[in-house]
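Run log // design_07
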């Protein structure tokens, strides 16, 4: 098990885990209260630590401070997450009151380890005072929440909300509420007591929750409406939300609230009179329906957006409106798939599949501010910390979906190591995380795989059965050349390990990786090239050459240069991979010098998504549902058509070399760890104008064509030969292919023109 890195140490908690006695362990909601006195705290922080099984809502002195706190667990197979919040703004000298509502899922599911026991552990440090959860608190089952719900899911730990307004406890979160009749909780032990184990600080921010907002179609709803009726609110996009409604009703009527494709339906049983309710369990979609029985009058509906706390800081626009539209859809898709973990589909599964995460990362690194990087670090930390004793990196962790028997998906894990880890490292330069993740990556690649005579041995069965152990899953669709993909994905992952070993100074590992790669490279072309089909294939592959494999052969460098044109021809002819792996053929076409062909392929394959009114991208081409993995193909192609390459990790050095064909213009803002980097170009005949905004500590190499004879630098004309070089500009190299200029940080407008 690997240690979790980049997370500050946790002060010892002396608090007890507590829970109401005899409360159901499945879909249980428990209420807690505690009063305490504080002296004036002079200039000190008031740190409140809360660990819960599983989610909590916190009120301090009657004010809601945290909505849906806590993270799905865990950081390890036996540990748990704990939140820490600065609460001095809500505390006061004298009597203070904490109130918490805790939701215990009690259900196995994806992205969460079910502890099987509800619990709450609280510690407040305010100056010299320490307040802890123990038997002195008050706790009870919340009587309005039922356990059955309406609709269940085998993949979701969260089950449906069932709330009976007749049994509600009005005002129970207020400071003056009388809780003297509430029982005391049971003490379950202090950390690291089982089943929660060692507590690890929450590594990502609390959610960004908005205010209640009206639906887009509010004017056409004609409220109030009296049932029987179904009233549907339309959201401005596919959002994560908490629905809210207000009704006037007799007692005992059942209202159902459903968010589009969600498998679960909230059931609310009314009390007599006017009342409102905000569904505490988030869901996502474009539409929210409210089913009203006879006699219930719907007075108003609203929604509260909730999401991972990050903002769109990147942007892309170009001369191709279809590409721009897909880029925006890719960004919306990724944002929708961020929360406790990266999620494949937030409406129905919420699984943190490793391959899906590798694709979402490519979007978040380019589209969102750097707070999103914390979720990448969390993902990699968990992948390492959940490793088996033999070093297997299990797929989709954390999880309790497969109790006592985990699944490994080597093709997904190799994608993460080959492309996800490398992309994160190049974008952030986060050497601390690379160092902590390295042992797990090294052990997995060098101990769990076997290379004999230059061939990577296939691991596990040749079919996907979803049984415990190694799974044979590479992609949706057909024509999958699994044995050939084994070679290519392993080689690419080994290249990440090789580069990491060099960065971290592991010279023996570096030499070992180089020897392994050379062994694979030496025999690759002769072993896998088929003259009959004019492409790479394994002996047992029955169909045409696999477009995934042809692309990876080109991108990894295993295919010699003389094969590139033929591989590009195949990628123009064969389109069998799914939206998940479409990124590789598109990148390979650009690498082969055919950017225009890559753009045409993108627009053919994404034709339904371009025409669709859906704001997000699907799991399969042509669908309308949201799924995480489709956006990588779009943002990576956009970047390649813009001509951006990171030379040194953390954007220390970048190349900007717009391809001669593909786009007439493009403009990109990248939210780098060093600040916003803007790169744009516009072609007008034989002239090219570059507009650049380079943040501090970034060196940018601008490459221009060999036909250039005159440069206009920030409005000043310069002949390339015989003229003084302007300040901040260095002609670092010249060749038959063109010129390279090294630009200092600052604002640049450079127009390249040929000789008159």
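design_07 sequence
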């Amino acid at each position: 098990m690997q240690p979790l890195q980049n997370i500050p140490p946790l002060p010892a908690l002396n608090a007890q885990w507590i829970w109401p006695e005899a409360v159901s362990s499945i879909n249980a909601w428990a209420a807690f209260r505690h009063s305490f006195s504080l002296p004036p705290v002079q200039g000190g922080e008031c740190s409140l630590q809360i660990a819960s099984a599983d989610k909590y809502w916190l009120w301090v002195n009657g004010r809601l401070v945290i909505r849906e706190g806590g993270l799905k667990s865990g950081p390890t197979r036996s540990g748990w997450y704990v939140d820490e919040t600065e609460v001095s703004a809500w505390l006061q000298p004298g009597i203070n009151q904490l109130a918490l509502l805790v939701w215990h899922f009690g259900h196995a599911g994806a992205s969460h380890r079910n502890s099987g026991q509800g619990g709450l552990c609280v510690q407040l440090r305010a100056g010299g005072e320490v307040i802890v959860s123990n038997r002195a608190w008050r706790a009870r089952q919340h009587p309005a929440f039922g356990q059955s719900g309406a609709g269940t899911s085998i993949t979701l730990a969260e089950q449906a909300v069932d709330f009976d307004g007749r049994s509600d406890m009005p005002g129970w979160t207020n400071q003056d509420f009388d809780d003297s009749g509430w029982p005391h909780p049971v003490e379950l032990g202090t950390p690291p007591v089982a089943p929660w184990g060692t507590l690890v600080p929450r590594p990502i921010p609390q959610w960004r929750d908005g205010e209640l907002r009206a639906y887009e179609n509010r004017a056409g709803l004609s409220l109030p409406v009296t049932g029987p009726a179904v009233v549907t609110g339309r959201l401005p996009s596919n959002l994560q939300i908490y629905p809210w409604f207000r009704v006037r009703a007799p007692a005992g009527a059942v209202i159902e609230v459903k968010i589009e494709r969600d498998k679960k339906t909230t059931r609310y049983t009314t009390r007599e009179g006017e009342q409102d309710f905000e569904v505490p369990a988030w869901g996502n979609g474009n539409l929210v329906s409210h089913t009203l029985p006879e006699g219930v009058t719907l007075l108003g509906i609203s929604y509260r957006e909730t999401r991972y706390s990050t903002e769109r800081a990147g942007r892309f626009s170009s001369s191709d409106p279809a590409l721009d539209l897909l880029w925006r859809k890719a960004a919306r898709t990724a944002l929708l798939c961020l929360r406790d973990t990266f999620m494949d589909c937030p409406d129905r599964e919420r699984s943190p599949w490793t391959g899906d995460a590798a694709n979402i990362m490519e979007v978040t690194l380019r589209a969102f501010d750097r707070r999103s990087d914390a979720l990448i670090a969390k993902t990699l930390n968990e992948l390492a910390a959940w490793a088996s004793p033999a070093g297997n990196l299990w797929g989709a962790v954390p999880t309790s979906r497969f109790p006592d028997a985990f699944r490994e998906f080597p093709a997904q894990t190799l994608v993460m190591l080959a492309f996800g880890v490398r992309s994160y490292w190049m974008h952030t330069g986060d050497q601390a995380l690379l160092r902590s993740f390295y042992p797990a990556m090294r052990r997995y690649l060098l101990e769990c795989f076997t290379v004999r005579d230059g061939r990577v041995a296939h691991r596990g069965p040749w079919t996907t059965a979803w049984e415990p152990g190694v799974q044979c899953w590479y992609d949706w669709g057909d024509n999958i050349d699994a044995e050939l993909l084994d070679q290519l994905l392993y080689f690419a992952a080994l290249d990440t390990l090789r580069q990491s070993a060099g960065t971290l100074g592991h010279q023996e590992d570096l030499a070992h990786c180089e020897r392994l790669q050379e062994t694979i490279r030496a025999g690759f072309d002769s072993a896998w090239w088929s003259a009959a089909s004019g492409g790479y294939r394994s002996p047992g592959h029955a169909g045409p050459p696999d477009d995934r494999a042809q692309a990876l052969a080109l991108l990894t460098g295993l295919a010699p240069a003389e094969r590139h044109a033929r591989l590009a021809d195949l990628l123009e002819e064969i389109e069998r991979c799914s939206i998940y792996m479409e990124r590789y053929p598109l990148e390979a076409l650009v690498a082969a010098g055919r950017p225009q062909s890559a753009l045409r392929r993108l627009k053919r394959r994404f034709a339904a998504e371009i025409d669709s009114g859906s704001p997000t991208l699907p799991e399969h081409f042509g669908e309308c549902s949201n799924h995480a993995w489709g956006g990588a193909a779009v943002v990576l192609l956009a970047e390649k058509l813009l001509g951006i390459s990171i030379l040194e990790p953390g954007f220390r050095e970048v190349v900007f070399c717009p391809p001669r064909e593909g786009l007439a213009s493009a403009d990109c803002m990248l939210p780098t760890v060093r600040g916003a980097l803007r790169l744009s170009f516009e072609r007008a005949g034989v002239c090219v104008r570059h507009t650049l905004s380079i943040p501090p500590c970034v060196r940018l190499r601008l490459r221009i064509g060999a036909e250039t004879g005159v440069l206009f630098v920030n409005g000043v004309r310069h002949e390339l030969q015989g003229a003084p070089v302007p300040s901040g500009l260095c002609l670092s190299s010249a060749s038959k292919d063109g010129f390279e200029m090294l630009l200092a940080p600052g604002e640049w407008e450079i127009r390249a023109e040929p000789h008159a």
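Residues 83 and 202 are 5 Å apart (CA to CA).
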